[in-house]
Amino acid sequence: MAPGEAVVVPSHGWPVAVTAGDGCEEEGYDMDRMSPLDAMFLHIEDGVTHMHIASCAIFEGPAPAYADLLELFRSKLQFVPRYRQKVRFTPGGIGRPTWVDDPHFRLDYHVRHTALPPPGDDAALRNLMGRLMSQQLDRNRPLWETWMVEGLASGEWALISKVHHCMVDGISGTDMMAVLLDVSREPAPTAADDWKPNAEPTDTDLVRAAIAETLASPNEIARWVRASTRTPKKMMASANEVARGALALGRRLTPNTPMSIEGTIGPHRRWAWARTTISDVKAVRVAFGGTVNDVVLCAVTKGFRELLVSRGEQLDGQVVRTLVPVSVRGSGDHSYNNQVSAMIAELPVGIADPLERLASIHEQMAGLKESHQAVAGSALVELAGFAPPVLLSLGLRNAMSVMRRTAQRSVNTVTTNVPGPQIPLYACGREMRDYFPFVPLSQGVRTGVAIMSYNGKVTFGVTGDWDSVPDLEVLSTGIEAGMRELLDLATQNAVEPKPTVKRKRTRTPASTSTPRRGSRRSVR
User: Fold this and answer.
1) Which of 16, 186, 360, 380 is the most exposed place for a label (fewest CB within 10 A)?
2) Which of 77-81, 205-209, 224-228, 481-485 has the highest mean pLDDT?
3) How many beta carbons lie within 10 A of that of residue 24, not counting itself?
4) Geometric angle at alpha carbon 76, from 29 and 98, rounded to 5°
């Protein structure tokens, strides 16, 4: 294996090699400039909007010694250089932030040890998770923390991991977790780690490097234009996709009906979870068609419906608009950075019948793929890369300030679905049994749902603003109720006799499978 590579287990479930970041040397120092998208996640953060993503992993007991866990992390740090790097801001904001080695890195500062008070039930663990997610990461140090949690009533123990969104997106964050853990109870030996921090650049070095990069920027733009004009047909096709996507995105940004799940947020968070299994999700998909993603979104829609109904809101014909992050990461790309775009979907909370909800979601998601919203989002991020960093930073901060003062009703929530490894992972010889995700909130969005699959299970991490969503568990229990009602209908559908209908067979692309017909309880 080449230096700087590690074995990981990405979402497809088999080990691959991953290379840690694309660093570059500037003026004799190792400095890695953030991408525009990574920098955006850093700039929009403030004392209320925390931009870290996280997870809560529960392992079989007994808990290992804290020193053994430290040794596990120490043996893997060489494969995750970001964990020993901090952010440096260029004076005057004339360049995007830069990753540099932290000369004062201490592993025991980042890997912490705590315990739940008796009785150590699930509510106590969820409360601890919410409290830790309410605390902003220290920007003077590498932007991550991991908490070892003992005292669970079940005899198990947990790892709560928190990483800033400027370091990773959902996919790369899952891959990073797979690097830090083992794929068997007996960990494979790792090479000796002789890491020594590189010299930290001075402010003068940062300014000089930023100026050199700015001077090169017009040449980069010119090269991009020349490359585009060499293939005019391809350029026109791409421009058409971007235009169609921007139009579709614009239509979804019109104000939605006011709802109690939107509005200003405070700095504190609540967190809850829901569970199901991949086999149950697939059973629903086999019975009624659609995709796995359609089924889990249908369950999430049920959760939001239950929450809004419990608050006495009228839902006839209403939808909850959700931001859906979409990975634009290339196949085989396991670098640790953000490569995401987004679409805006509408969860049909006004539909009471679960199968009608599923059919509506399937039809809509198929249309979203054709709308090229994600393509337009990626293009906007690329254009932002050409903007002067100081203007980009000021623009984002001013936008967040306006959002705190002005109600936005374009997006009501965020729903992200991240595929995880489908084989068991281990820490210090203990198997990880459950893997719950966490999604951050932004101004105007008081709730969010992250969905994670791992080793045959599907988990939902539900984030809520502490002040405005005291009833967060109505949403999480509603998600589980939504899965149960779909599974019950699928079970009934399997045992009921189906009419034999002869009709002409048509080919349907596998990527856009349509809901099946032929049963009273089929999705219509």
Assistant:
1) 186
2) 481-485
3) 11
4) 30
Count how many Cα atoms sit within 13 Å of the Cα of residue 28 in the half-sphere of its side chain: 6
pLDDT score recorded for residue 434:
97
Q: How far is CA 387 from CA 50, 384, 395, in A?
A: 24, 5, 10
Angle at which helix 389-405 crosses helix 36-43, to 10 degrees, equals 40
Percent of the chain past pLDDT 90, that is, above it, reads 51
Tell me phi and psi for residue 431, to 5 degrees. -75, 140
401-433 in b/e burial notation, b at 16+ Cβ within 10 A? eebeeeebbebbbbbbbbbbbbebbbbbebebe
Please give the average per-residue pLDDT across 147-163, as a whole number: 97
DSSP-assigned letter for residue 200: P
3-state secondary structure of 231: coil
| CA 175/CA 167 separation, integer angstroms | 12
* Per-residue buried b or exposed e for 274-313, using 16+ beta carbons within 10 Å of the residue's own CB: bebeeebbebbbebbbbbbbbbbbbbbbbbbbbbbeeeeb
Is residue 448 over pLDDT 90? yes
Active-site residue, from 164, 165, 362, 372: 165
Radius of gyration of the chain (CA): 24
- Within 8 A by CB and 6+ apart from 323, the residues are 342, 343, 344, 411, 413, 414, 415, 445
Most confident region among 1-5, 14-18, 46-50, 417-421 by mean pLDDT: 46-50
Bridge partner list, 160: 56, 147
Strands 447-454, 413-419: pairing kind? parallel
Instruction: Find the distance separating the first CA and the last CA of the chain, reported in whole Å.
Output: 52
Q: What is the C-alpha to C-alpha distance for residues 145 and 150, in angstroms, rounded to an integer?
A: 16
195-200 long-range contacts, CB within 8 A, separation 24+ = 195/77, 195/78, 195/84, 197/84, 197/101, 197/102, 197/103, 197/105, 198/29, 198/30, 198/100, 198/101, 199/28, 199/29, 200/29, 200/88, 200/100, 200/101, 200/103
User: Do residues 461 and 275 lie in contact, with contact meaning Cβ atoms separated by under 8 Å?
Assistant: no
Neighbours of 258 (CB within 10 A): 11
Written as six digits, the tokens of 322 are 């959700």
Q: Is the pLDDT of residue 249 over 60?
A: no
